[in-house]
Amino acid sequence: MTPRTTASHPDRRHGTEPAHDDSRPADQGSTPSDAASTPTDAPGTVQRGTLDDPLDLLCVGVGPFGLGLACLTDPLPDVRAAFLDAAPGFNWHPGLLFDDATLQVPFLADLVTMADPTSRFSFLQWLKETGELYPFYVRESFFPLRRDYNAYCRWAAQRVRGVYWGHRVTQVTRPTGEGPWRVTARARGVEHSWWARHLVVGTGTVPRTPGELSGVPDTTVHASEYLSRRETLVSEDHVTVIGSGQSAAEVFLDLLHTPGGPAVDWFTRSPRFYPMEYSKLSLELTSPDYLDHFRSLPEAERDRLNASQPQLHRGISDATIDAIHEALYVRRNDPDAPPVRLVAATELVDAWHEAGRTVLRWRNSENHHVRETVTDAVVAATGYRSAAPDWLAPVRDQLSLDASGRLSPDRYHRASPDGTVHVLNHGEHTHALTAPDLGMGPLRNAHVLAHVTGRTPYITEDHTTFQSFGHVPQRHVAPAVGPDGTFETRALGRAFTLRPVDPDGDAALLHAWLSSPRAHAWGLVGADEQTISREYHRMTAADAEDAWIVSEHDRPLALLETYDPARSPLAAVWPVRDGDAGLHLFVAPTSRPVPGTTRAVMAVALNLLWSDPAVQRVLVEPDVRNERIRAINRWAGFREVGECHLAEKTASVSVVVRGDGPQDHVRTTDTEASVAERAEVTR
Known about the structure:
Blueprint: H1 32-35, E1 55-60, H2 64-73, E2 81-85, H3 123-129, H4 133-139, H5 146-159, E3 163-165, E4 168-173, E5 181-187, E6 190-201, E7 205-207, E8 220-222, H6 226-234, E9 238-242, H7 246-256, E10 263-267, H8 280-283, H9 288-295, H10 299-307, H11 310-313, H12 318-330, E11 340-343, E12 346-354, E13 357-364, E14 370-375, E15 377-380, E16 384-386, E17 421-423, H13 428-431, H14 441-453, E18 487-491, E19 494-500, H15 507-514, H16 529-541, E20 545-552, E21 555-563, E22 580-587, H17 597-610, E23 617-620, H18 627-635, E24 639-646, E25 649-657, H19 667-676
Parallel strand pairs: 1-2, 1-6, 2-3, 6-17, 8-15, 9-10, 9-15, 10-11, 22-23
Antiparallel strand pairs: 4-5, 5-6, 7-16, 12-13, 13-14, 18-19, 19-20, 20-21, 21-22, 23-25, 24-25
Helix pairs in contact: 2-14, 7-12, 15-16, 18-19
């Protein structure tokens, strides 16, 4: 048999999270050996948390993403966590676990490596412990067999702390309306309550079967159950496969290769049988950069994009297409071979039983012809859908939902307004191709753990692509800093030093400045130190934003933020150009103000930006109501060029071009600015 490649749902080049749900034993055929990995449930030995002393994290659903979260949590001594799943053990897509099928992602897309290459739960560590490292090396393929990936995950599940198999969650509540979450789970006929500060939904997606097949459930098999039903299917006279992508192709090929197998029809509503698009630039669509672009789009546009990328969502690997064509070529002159049909651009419109067989009615989407076929069994390789588990229903009003009622996690996979509910695989509508991609799992889990711990246990990358999405890039601001990363300059006869913000070391200082009502424009009023630290960790990791502390004689005076306007909300409402740099400024309050400080800090900020020869123009966008900062801007040479609407304000867009500055303005402007700087100056 020709080797095949397979990608789990959705059918595309990228390896994905399975349809795995804690609410039912979705993965049939889990072996008893996995049950041995279940932590003991004897009274007094299981840490379930309490209302007063909850666990830090409780994850419901242990597919690859949930298991990866467990593996990354395992070495963190300050995180008390538990992971619950209804299944007796780990078993990934057993219905499509063909012996020769491979993952469509490299082995680096394991449970942990993209977040922690040194983890003891890596795929390479599994190869070493099982004596398979050298054979894998000689094989010279980055793409593991799916059965090996499944074995690797089962190995990790037996070694990681805190995973509880056979625990079916029945309900989630929040008795006080805030604070810890209460999770009720049944194990071996006994219900227990678990309490946690953070709830993680790891249940994944569920099989989707067309409603047109609802009248023939007894002869319909979803592809996720194919291998468990294969013996019956291959004994039929005729089987119809419905679907567009890799899973449909895998099932079709297996039926072709079965000696004495049935006649087979393969129907797809797609215009053609698409090959997977896995060129390297297309793979950049599974990246934080594309995610940021995708999330900036309206909900309707996101749904349209997801539906318009069939080669990414419904493609078939080149190897599988070649194997199918070869099998068809070999049997073309065999008079004893059962007939085979491949039909594209044709959708199912109805199905019913008649005279002991199943009748399927089809409509061609191009010529609109309608015809009927007769079959004995249907394999629905029709993908999977996101579905919020029933046990979340009691707290639905505390979750973030979109206009269609779907769970709507934010950029960092938080699905509640207070950020204590996290979703691991529920959102191509919010996270595009990154949602089911195995390689993105460790990054996602690193973000969850950063939020739970209030620190950064694993370094993450935010910008990884060569191409840009949604904007025309420009060279990032690169000021002429010294060897120690500082920038020294003078303004109005005074000497200043600028240094990059230290998100941890400066957290207390920034909290004192930005959590006060005076700094309302920063959107951090009332935030704690951990929240502010996380925000500046994000900023320092970004390649389009920088933050600086301005000091005089080692005394911090101000916070300066520089940014690329092309990658900011301003770009959506105002035309930016090459050479633009954006500026935000906060001058700290003091009991002993020194006249001219605000003007001096503004001049210092411009000196920093002008030190990069690529910067030709600086933009600011203060609130039109903030006459004080507008006066300071005019003193510095900014020219008001128009107004636009940004979040929570109408902005007065102002620009200063290289060569312009305070020295070009009359003395009366100095007077206006000196009056203004005695009051609030922000952004």
